[in-house]
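ligand=NAP
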Amino acid sequence: MVVRVGLVGGSGYTGGELLRILAVHPNVEVTYVTSREYAGKPFTAIHPHLRGFYKGLKFSEVNVEALVEKCDTVFVNTPHGVSSTLTPQFLDRGLRVLDLSADFRLRKPADYEKWYETKHPRPELLDKAVYGLPEIYREFIKTASLVACPGCNSTAALIALVPAVEQGLIDLERIVVDVKVGSSEAGIKPSLGTHHPERANVMRPYEAEGHRHVAEVEQELSLLAKKPVKVALVPHAVGAVRGALATAHVWFLNEETDENNVWKVYASRYAKEPFIRIVHGAPFRYPDPKYVVGSNFADVGFAVEKRIGRAALFAAIDNLMKGAAGQAVQCFNIMHGFDERDGLNYPPLRPA
Ligand SMILES: NC(=O)c1ccc[n+]([C@@H]2O[C@H](COP(=O)([O-])OP(=O)(O)OC[C@H]3O[C@@H](n4cnc5c(N)ncnc54)[C@H](OP(=O)(O)O)[C@@H]3O)[C@@H](O)[C@H]2O)c1
């Protein structure tokens, strides 16, 4: 079976990454890709890495009717606030949608309004969207018509924390996460804080109080824990182009918990996950985004400090892959009954 795929927002970083993955996907024909700025131009006008692929295809204007006619499934890669008006139009006409923006990640309209400071135009859809983290929602993604792909910081934080929370290993009142993330997380358009002279070599905390990704991390951990979970999360902009590393500082409920207990919980929880690798033992002792770049893998590890009953839980991802386009394609594969690894079955780059 070949699925006809459209991209709304094909000229940005996640759009470019989706096109890279889908170029070799065995069950996909890319039929419609939008960019208002590059409409009428070939993809290589902004994506030089795609030279030799997609010959004859050009960017188009955002035209809902044309997308509906030419596509079965659409990836929406626009800034938040745009997808919430476009996605309902696709759903109303029977298309399936994977939204990479934040517009459908929060289940409650009041939460969306609080964190995104605007009313959701189609609040009834929030409850129907499936949060696109296959490690939790694989069964629901299979039949979803709308998948809300998680943020990159949230993906890393959740993958680091899910087994410990599910198994009741840690104190849910004290979860402190810091995330280091590369510059491509900010998208393709430079701003004062993100253009090269300002961003290169930084180690800069940002949105240190109330980053919006906190909302989805708390939402998902609370659902797993079946009670409200509060999380302190501080992202840090670092000089890398790709990569996100979450370090979750947690305290055990049982002071006897040791490395062996944690190892067993993580190894068994993620044993069947095609894109989770447990990192344990020298010489590369802890997860490092450098060793997942270009791939959909999340490397997970931990450091247990038994002396004070705490652990640091780590997850390293490529923000454009497991943190965005790769995870979206993983969900797409699940939705369509394909092998989850289709288009994604390769090791990371090294050196990167
Ligand atoms: N970068 C990451 O690591 C990452 C990770 C996870 C999730 N995300 C989320 O994924 C989405 C895309 O991120 P990105 O990094 O690819 O952003 P980007 O590089 O800035 O690209 C944005 C894309 O959206 C299009 N667009 C912008 N405004 C539009 C509008 N009003 N109507 C139609 N198209 C519009 C742009 O094309 P034209 O302006 O030419 O139309 C462009 O193709 C964002 O919501 C972001 O938060 C990003």
